[in-house]
Amino acid sequence: MNLDFDKKKFSCKFDYCIGKASDLSDSSLHVKATDYKRRVSGATRAVSSEDAFKIPKAKGYFVSKKYDGEFALLFFDGKTLISVNPGATVRTGLPCLDEAEALLKKAKVKNCILAGEYYVRVGATKGHPVQQVVGILRKPDSKKELEKIGLAFFDVIQLNDEAVTGVAKVFGDLEKWFGKGKSVHPVEHRKVDTNDKILEAFTEWVVGEGAEGVVVRHDSAGIFKVKTRHNIDVAVIGFSEGTEDRKGMLHDLLVAVLRDDGTFHEFTRVGGGFTDEDRREFVKMFRKQVVPSEYVAVNNDYVAYEMIKPGPVIEISCLDMIAERARGGPVNRMVLEWDGKKYKALSRLPLVSVISPQFISIRDDKEAVVDDVNIRQVNDLVKVPEVDKSAHQEKAKPSEVLEREVYTKTMKGNKMVRKLLLWKTNKEDQPDFPAFVVYLTDFSPNRQNPLERDIKIASTEKDARNLYEALAKKNFIGGWEKA
Fold it and tell me: What is the 3-class SS of 209-262, one letter each residue?
């Protein structure tokens, strides 16, 4: 383990230095930080407090308080302790790091890799604790302000070049080294043998003290994160339909919140919480509201959403909202503009990843307007970067319609309409857009499903025109007349 770094490239203030992982001699330290967070996140199952009884019954659980701070991996080589987070930020010289370093030396630890959470231990205010931590760590006003930062350790990954296994050993070592620390300590934890005791800890720490949640670990049963569910009002902007025996039933919804500038910020996909009757009724309702969109979103089964006129508003619940990706950096989601006729894609801006979204109910008392489904209801729970920024500041170049044909046909007194469009998105340099889109709408009042659509994409104009001509040849025959 090589903890050397080029101090000239670090920014130092009050003996506290910040730098980038790329300036470390050992580039593997950043890789270890990102891999650890991704591995633990993937192994952790989110559970609501109401469903805590579903955690497998077993003795020997360790339940710990969840701190809402900045995660970091800590590396100690016997002399020096530094922290590296998944966002590639390296920190050294913090008062809490100095104390932890001294305690590890006193315990005669040769080397180790630990996981911990920076948090504000002195002078914290209500609301967005993680932002208070980040604010001090980025721009401290004084050394005294740096002393407000605490470090709560919750895992021992490696000790004296050997991997550490067993939750009991992890907390045993942390207690032995940091149990009498002032600005550093093991996360508050206790050993429990029943689910009722897990809920007791949850009630004490989360309900009573306002903690973010609790983490429950067991060597065999796994890792669980227990949190309260959050309720959010969102606007439905798209839907996807089931296939085969689920045809005619809703698969999931694409929902959005509104930014202050009136644009729709794609929030999440909602596939749970519906009855089969809900799924049938939603499909019937939404088929009548389908509108064109320059932006093509797909669900987890790679089925394109049918975009609908904004609304209705629904209430959903979720277990967690996370504003940072496992490897660091914001969770960027598409912002759309609705001009009354179709959706136009503007740009991606930071929002959140939503854990376990569930449908609750339709909010007939609300509309898809800024006052009713504002992004600030998310920001009140999880700090969203650039929440005040207007999406129009980064408005993309508009699409260009290359071909448009409309044909009609009358049968049994009913008029049928087929419309075929080909457009160039002018956003082929952006990863979320195809270069060309071919879009066919087929309206026939005689069918069980009056409106059907076919969307095809292409990377070159030649391929797009071939698709366009093939659809025209297939659909504009047998009595269809150009309108």
Answer: CCCCEEEEEECCCEEEEEECCEEEEEEEEEEEECCHHHCCCEEEEEEEEECCCC
Does 282 have pLDDT greater than 60?
Answer: yes
Question: Residue 54: inside a domain, yes or no?
Answer: no
Tokens of 478: 């047998």
pLDDT tier for residue 124 given thresholds of 50, 70 and 90: low
pLDDT in tens, 385-403: 888 888 876 556 778 899 9
Domain residues for the domain of 278 are 230-394
Residue 441 sits in the same domain as residue 299: no
Q: Which amino acid is at 436?
A: F
The vertex-239 CA angle with 236 and 240, nearest 5°, equals 165
Distance CA 477, CA 468 (A): 15
- Residues paired with residue 115 on neighbouring β-strands, in sequence order: 73, 155
Beta bridge partners of 440: 420, 454
- Is residue 405 assigned to a domain? yes
Q: Which of 178, 181, 227, 184 lies closest to 206, judged by CA?
A: 227
Residue 370's Cβ-count burial label (10 Å; 0-12, 13-18, 19+) is middle
Is 135 inside any structural domain?
yes
Is the distance from CB of 337 to CB of 264 less than 8 angstroms?
yes
Same domain, yes or no, for 39 and 158? yes
Q: In this predicted structure, what is the pLDDT of residue 326?
A: 63
What is the average per-residue pLDDT within 258-284? Answer: 94
CA quadruple 206, 210, 213, 218: dihedral sign = negative
- 299 and 237 in a single domain? The answer is yes
For residue 108, what are the contacts with CB-CB under 8 A and spacing of at least 6? none
Residue 34 has pLDDT above 60, yes or no: yes
Widest Cα–Cα separation across the chain: 92
Q: Which residues pair with 266 in a beta bridge?
A: 256
Torsion of CA 66, 70, 72, 78, to 10 degrees: -90
Lowest mean pLDDT among 14-23, 156-165, 179-188, 292-301: 292-301
The Cα–Cα gap between 418 and 409 comes to 9
| Residues 340 and 385 occupy one common structural domain | yes
The CATH number linked to 381 is 2.40.50.140
Number of domains in the chain: 3
Concatenated DSSP letters of 275-295: -HHHHHHHHHHHHTTB--BS-
Q: Among residues 133, 151, 155, which one has the least CA distance to residue 36?
A: 155
Q: Identity (one letter) of the amino acid at 57? A: K
Residue 214 lies in a domain: no
Provide Rg for the chain, Cα atoms. Answer: 27
Residue 454 φ/ψ, nearest 5 degrees: -140, 120
